[in-house]
Design brief:
Length: 318
């Protein structure tokens, strides 16, 4: 085979590889006009090389953030260095639809890219080459894993019945606040809340009815919370609310609003209307508390006093 035939064959192989390789290959002039467009790009965009030839990239693909891509490409031209983009920073450069059955949950193709300079015989950068990698499988797997981990983290701190924080997570929050407030000297107040005569509800109507009552009271607690407050199910029919940066006087308003909401509440169960009330103990942090359990004990004693005084009332710790 002659040297000319060998060279022609090699060019043919290279062109065949260029068109069939499973990555996108795009060559841009220095003024961002498309010069080369391979089969991958044609298949996913629906545009042939003839249709895109010499077209201004940002006119043809309006979804591309021109300022962002120029910030990536301009140093490649000036410094002759490569640049990279990853899907975690920006999901894609070209907004291609995702047609893979395995990663069908993704509407668009996630992409990584490499951008490198192309020089002439004098060493001057005249063009840019963009290599586009389809990383949808990896991206979707990562997103699903992170979502699952987030769900597991939520489950680990959430009470299943009420959706409030469980006791373990809430008590950790109390410990953190106790340590913080020792340093800051701010006011924070703790509420302990208990459903009155709850055993009577369970004995009369059954545990399913008791669960419905607990859920309705938990909803009333959530309704009254501010974004900074931390509420939890402390155990059984008992709830706890940590009011950050809140004086006992302000906490009494919160407690009274909660008490009234529960008193006015009607729980429908098996075509019957159940009504309950709550007793509440309120304790503001003070410097005499040598550990966080003292704070809990203060609120718990105040709650007991509300129970002993006739229930459906609020007692402030001494």
């Amino acid at each position: 085979m002659s040297q000319n035939n060998v060279e022609v064959s090699e060019i043919h192989w290279l062109m065949d590889m260029f068109q069939t390789v499973d990555v996108g290959l795009v060559v841009l002039s220095a003024d961002y006009r498309i010069q080369v467009w391979n089969g991958f790009m044609e298949n996913h965009s629906g545009l042939t090389p003839r249709q895109v030839r010499d077209r201004y990239l940002f006119d043809l693909f309006s979804e591309i953030d021109e300022e962002w891509l120029r910030r990536k490409c301009d140093p490649v031209i000036l410094l002759k260095n490569r640049a990279f983009t990853i899907w975690e920073q920006r999901p894609y450069i070209f907004k291609f639809r995702n047609y893979r059955p395995i990663t069908g949950s993704a509407e668009f193709m996630y992409q990584n890219s490499t951008i490198f300079p192309l020089t002439d015989t004098m060493g001057k950068v005249t063009h840019l080459c963009l290599i586009i990698y389809d990383v949808t499988d990896v991206a979707v797997s990562r997103i699903e894993l992170e979502s699952m981990n987030g769900h597991l983290r939520t489950l680990s701190k959430t009470d299943f019945l009420t959706g409030l924080n469980n006791r373990g997570f809430w008590e950790e929050a109390l410990i953190k606040e106790y340590k913080r407030i020792q340093r800051s000297g701010h006011h924070s107040t703790l509420l302990m809340c208990d459903i009155d005569h709850f055993k009577r509800v369970n004995d009369t109507y059954g545990h399913a009815a008791g669960d419905a009552v607990i859920q309705h009271v938990a909803a009333a607690v959530k309704k009254n919370l501010r974004s900074t407050d931390v509420a939890g199910r402390y155990g059984g029919e008992e709830f706890s609310v940590l009011l950050l940066d809140t004086s006992v006087e302000q906490a009494m308003f919160f407690a009274e609003r909660l008490r009234k909401n529960v008193e006015a509440m009607a729980v429908e169960y098996n075509q019957q209307i159940l009504r309950v009330t709550v007793s509440i103990g309120v304790s503001e942090y003070n410097e005499a508390m040598t550990e966080y359990r003292d704070w809990l004990e203060g609120a718990d004693k105040a709650l007991y006093q509300s129970k002993a005084a006739g229930r459906n009332r609020i007692t402030k710790a001494e």
